[in-house]
Design brief:
By secondary structure, the chain is an all-alpha fold. The protein has helices spanning 24-32, 37-63, 72-77, 84-95, 103-120, 128-146, 162-188, 193-207, 211-221, 234-260, 263-271, 276-291, 293-306, 318-325, 335-364; one strand at 316-317. It folds into 3 domains: 23-63, no CATH class; 99-154; 161-364, Orthogonal Bundle (MetI-like fold).
Length: 370
Amino acid sequence: MSASISFATPKSTPRRPPPALEAGVLLWLRRNLFSSAYNTVLTVLALWALFVTIPDFIVWAFIEAVWWTDDPQACRDASGACWAVVVEKHRVMLFGTFPYEEHWRGVIAIALIVGMAIASAFKRLWSYWLFVAWLGVTAAVLVLLLGGVFGLTPTGTHQWGGLPLTLLMFVGTVVGGMPLAVFLALGRRSRLPAIKAMCVGFIEIVRGVPLITVLFMASLMFPLFMPEGVTINKFLRAQIGMILFFAAYAAEIVRGGLQAIPRGQYEAADAIGLSYWQKTNRIILPQALRIVLPALMNDIIRAFKNTTFVSIIGLFDVLGATATALEDPLWVLFALEAYTFIFVLYFVFCFSMSKYSEHVERDLSKGRNL
């Protein structure tokens, strides 16, 4: 007689949620703001400072502010901010010395550059055609700003200014400086002594002087080395100086990425018979640029802010144009509001580039830590 044995299958019980202190907002607060006695004291002091300053700031900036008036006396009589200075002087601040009746060309130029930058943020659009589109947009922006064709009034580069000048110089700096930076980084690691010496010398000399010095050299000294009768306009000279300065710093960042690649990657590429340029283009550079992306984006953001230095050599970027607009004695007392507007403008551009860099970094890191 055989006995049958039955096994009872345990019933699965639903998982209980974690305690409130181990998840959600309370966990974030405990880890980031109240993780220790020192952090708790700093958090309390910061909250007290915000409590003291924020209400008065809101009253000054919004409640008692003057938003729209063409009479500066109304701003002087008010106890709040005078944002009317931005309304009154925004065209000078945004377009500088560009002819007033041609500001619509500057608006279109800004829209084209910003639109292409937004389109370039979508990964599915990354292709050869995106590069072609950038070339086309750059040509269109130059036609708009220079004029002389399609019935447009000719406008010299000495009349360019404001935000179009800032954006165009920034795009030119990054687009022209990145390829040069890559070649300098590769040249510095070259086994050919002459190429390595030239790259090292260029990088160390440019990195050893301030950007102001580079711009003065490009603006004042560079024409002395040109043949007699040959001149290059000031904008192009400043653009060349910005490109060289950016390339020297970015080259060291790229070189750091190249050194971080394991030796096995080079040996594997050599083992399958890839040439130097095939190995560099398909295996080494993609990995190196992914490694140095945060530092490289930091240098790109700095290049955007460095465009303010061109006002020293007589080009009116958006910051220089704002300073020119505030030379009006009727509105000179409200420089704080005008520069606050420029601060917000720069913050929007720089913060957008920073957050996009984080997004690309996360996207490229998917699957690496599995």
